[in-house]
Every structure is written in C-alpha cells, then in structure tokens.
Design brief:
The chain is α/β, with parallel strands linked by helices. The chain has two domains: 56 residues, Helicase, Ruva Protein, domain 3 (Orthogonal Bundle); 208 residues, Vaccinia Virus protein VP39 (Rossmann fold), CATH 3.40.50. It has twelve helices and nine strands. The protein is elongated, with a radius of gyration of 21 Å. S-adenosylmethionine binds next to helix 7 and strand 4.
C-alpha cells in the first residue's frame, strides 16, 4: 500500500503535528513547506521505519533538536547532541545586548575580550562573533569560551568550525582557566563576560518533564539556583583586583531570582550598576552588571 506524507502525519495522535512535520521533513530531507504542498508524496518503507523510530523517541520526551541533531539560534544553525543544552530563544536577548554593546564601543582603539562562561553548544560567542565581524571584519575582538564539560566543548568546537569563527576553548570551572592563562593582556580592553549558567533548582528540574533528557549539569544549581553565579561573582571580584580593565557582565536568570541576584551582586561588587532586561514574554531574564 502507498505510504504518503498525509498518511504519516495523521497517524500517532500523541505527538503534535508540528513535531511530526519537523521529524518527517528531516527524514525525507525536504522542507516543511514541501510537506504542505505535497500531501500525496510517496514515502519509502525505510523512511517510514526511521520516522516511526523517531516518533517513539519523541514520545519518551527526547528533545526534537536531539533527534534531528540541530537547532536554530539567532538565525544560525547549531549542531546539538545529548551532551549540551538545546539553545533557547530566551538567550537571544543576551546575544543581541552584547552585540549592541560591542558595536557601541566602536572599532577604533578599543580591544574587546569576550569570555563566555558555560558555553554549551557555543551558541552565544559564535552568534556574537559572527554578527559583529560580518558587519565589521576589522574589529579587534578576542573570544574565549569555557565549559566544565569536555563533551560540551567538543560540540562547541564543532559549531565554531561550522561557522568559521575563531574562538579559544578552555576547559574548567567558571573563570578558573582564565586565572591560569600565563598571559592575559588587558590594556585598553573591555572585557565582556556572558554567562548562561545552570540556574534552576532541583525541584524545578523534577517538575518539568520536557527537560529530563537534557544534561542536569547544564540546568541545575544549588542555593536556589544561584550557587554558580555566586561563585562566578567571587571570581570576578578577584579578577578586578588583579587586572585593570573595563568590565561588562551578563547573566541569564530565572525571573524569580531578580531580587536575590541583585543582593548577591551588591555583596561582591558593591560599586556595580545593575540593569535587568525582560524577555519577549515580559519576564526578567537578563542581568547586566557594569
Ligand atoms: C544552561 S547551559 C548553557 C549553555 C549555552 N551557554 C546556552 O546558552 O545554550 C550551562 C552550561 O554551563 C556548563 N557548566 C556547568 N557548570 C559549570 C562550571 N562550574 N564551569 C563552567 N561551565 C559550567 C554546562 O556544562 C553547560 O554547558
């Protein structure tokens, strides 16, 4: 019997139509638009088997991005696998804010050192570098990306290669690899630290079925989700004591953490200015520290 696009998309009511369309277009290597326009397109037996296997995995809450091995972020396509957090649209706010800041600093005499802490897929520094340098190829911007997961760093390196961007990848805890660098030149430099670190609580993690298959190391932190940001703030304080540079830091947070993070920042960096930006849903999402 003929197996068509229409038939496969109407089977299995447990999976949303959108997910089925994405998986089917991945299997037959055609766009979703092709599916709409060609409901009677014939699918081979092996394609049907592959599609059904993906549906079974999707039913076990495996993120669709892991199944199709990529995810779009800030208009760029990123390779993803089970070792990294799937990039979220919320994080595009940090990227857009960093790009605006870097462009505002101008190209003339200033060096920019971008340090992305907890880089995962590398989506933040790659999107920033790609955007800034495509508009101005002569921009002086060094980029370092750090992660505690070696497997995540492999994914980030693969993405940097794919997008042809130069990033130094370092393995370690938060900014510790920076302290170990024998030479860090910061004269006339603005350092921008971007950090989308794990910030949800154990309880939030347990209550959210959709994130169970993503690495817990990328999602959960102690101390009401703020333990890693606190440790990072301590390290930033130490960095500021040892080096002379202008610093801008950005943290992505959960909207419930605004008051606590403000208190924490004031504890370690009493002189700092703090600005909070909201995401597209109108929720506090980005903390900017200058
Ligand atoms: C929420 S994910 C964010 C990934 C990526 N930046 C993004 O926005 O999609 C947090 C990342 O921080 C890394 N991480 C967790 N603890 C860390 C630590 N102590 N030092 C450095 N990286 C850490 C995880 O491995 C994970 O890749």
């Amino acid at each position: 019997m003929k197996i068509t696009v229409k038939k496969l998309l109407t089977n299995n009511k447990k999976i949303s139509l959108l997910d089925k369309e994405i998986l089917l277009s991945h299997v037959i290597k055609k766009s979703r638009e092709f599916l709409f326009a060609n409901p009677d397109f014939e699918i081979s037996f092996w394609q049907k088997i592959k599609f059904e296997s993906l549906l079974r995995q999707r039913q076990k809450n495996i993120p669709i991005a892991y199944l199709i091995r990529h995810k779009e972020f800030f208009g760029l396509d990123f390779f993803v696998n089970k070792n990294v957090l799937v990039p979220r649209p919320d994080t595009e706010l940090m990227v857009a804010t960093a790009i605006a800041e870097i462009n505002e600093q101008g190209t003339e005499n200033k060096n920019i050192l971008l340090i992305d802490v907890g880089t995962g897929t590398g989506c933040i520094p790659i999107a920033i570098r790609k955007s800034v340098l495509s508009a101005n190829p002569n921009f002086k911007m060094e980029t370092i990306a750090i992660d505690i997961s070696k497997k995540a760093l492999c994914v980030a390196k693969k993405n940097a290669k794919k997008h042809n961007v130069e990033i130094e990848f370092l393995h370690g805890n938060l900014l510790e690899p920076i302290f170990q660098l024998s030479e860090l030149r910061t004269e006339n430099t603005e350092i921008i630290i971007t950090a989308n670190l794990p910030y949800i609580t154990e309880q939030q993690f347990k209550q959210e079925p959709s994130i169970q298959k993503e690495p817990k190391l990328a999602l959960v932190a102690d101390n009401e989700g703020l333990a890693l940001y606190e440790e990072l703030l301590k390290q930033i304080k130490q960095l500021l004591l040892t080096l002379d540079f202008r610093l801008l830091t950005m943290f992505e947070i959960d909207p419930t953490q605004t008051d606590k993070i403000k208190i924490m920042i004031k504890k370690y960096l009493p002189e700092a200015n703090i600005e909070i930006k909201k995401d597209l849903a109108g929720l506090d999402r980005l903390v900017i520290i200058t």
